[in-house]
Design brief:
Helices cover about 65% and strands about 0% of the residues. It is mainly alpha-helical. Helix 2 crosses helix 3. This is RNA polymerase sigma factor 70 region 4 type 2 domain-containing protein.
Amino acid sequence: MRTASGGDDDETPVEQLTRIASLRRDIAREEEVAVRRARQSGLSWAEIGFLLGVSKQAMHKKYRKVG
């Protein structure tokens, strides 16, 4: 049976952590693509940071190579 968090009730802690690590990698890749597209479309670091709930400084530091 799936729980509200997306895991199985009988999932071991190791399985759960492995699944979460995989999800985090997937989300990080998707975020990087979205940030690159946002910058290419003219959004500022402040706008992107606001939409993601972080400061423009944090966005610029994390993605300075994106542009």
